[in-house]
Every structure is written in structure tokens, then in C-alpha cells.
Design a protein that fits this description.
Helix content is 79%, strand content 0%. It is an all-alpha fold. The longest helix has 38 residues. 30% of the residues are buried. The two termini are 25 Å apart. Helix 1 runs antiparallel to helix 2 and helix 3 runs antiparallel to helix 4. The chain has four helices and no strands.
Amino acid sequence: MVSVDRSTAKDDIEKYEKRNFWSGLFFGIGLMAFVDEVIFHQLLQWHHFYDLSTPQIGIFADGLLNSFAWFAAIGGLFMFADLRRRNAVWMRRWVASILIGAGTFQLFDGIIDHKVLRTHQIRYNVELLPYDLAWNIFGAILLFAGIALLVKARKERRSA
């Protein structure tokens, strides 16, 4: 008979819970940054990541944001692949953390970048309030949906 060290099993569960969370968080941040970059910076051309200088600097800043987005998303997916290999994916927890990451990025961009630092606005030469409200409310919805899903996942794991 093989003896099982319960503290080691508990440590493994906590370790994989954290890895599921961080994997989804990085992927969610990267995904939302990529969506923002492609839709609002490139397709609609409403703004650049940094609009306080020349258009060339704005495009350069967009490139840095795009690089960050891809590093975060791909890093999160590499972590996810490792979790799958170890048969340690908790999908509900992972999806919850994607929503948390996406909502956090959206709110950080809307509050810190748009209002505090004023590195750019969503649009220019329009009434900003409807855009700011839509941007930040959408981010808050993503964040709170992720938190609610994470709480549900924790309850289910504890009852199992």
C-alpha cells in the first residue's frame, strides 16, 4: 500500500489552482489588449495607445501594446498547455480568470490611461461621456462576471 502525504496533495491542488488563475488572467489581459488594439487602434483608428506626441510615436506605442498583448496571451496559453499536459485544468476557474483579466485590462485602460494619465481618449472631437461609460461599464461587467464565476468554482471545489 502506498502512503499519500496529504499536505503534498493539498499543496499540489493549491499550486494548480494558482496556475489556472494566472494562465487565464494573462490570456484575458492579452486578449483584451489585442481586441482593443485591432478594433479601436487599427480598424476604427480612433486613437493610438499614446496620443501625446507625433503619429509615428503613436504607432510605435501601438506596436509595444500589441507586443505586450501577444506576450501575455501566448504566455497564458503556454501555461494552459502545461496544465493540460498535467491533467490539471479547472476550466471554470480558467474561464473566470480570463474574464477577470479582460475586465481588469479594460478598466485600467478606461480609468488610468484615459482619465488619470490621459495618454489617449477613446475618441476625439465627440462627447466622451457615453464612450467612457460604455467602456468602463463593459470592463466592470467582465470583471464582476469573472469574480462571480471564480466564487462559484471555489464553492464547487470545496464541496467536492
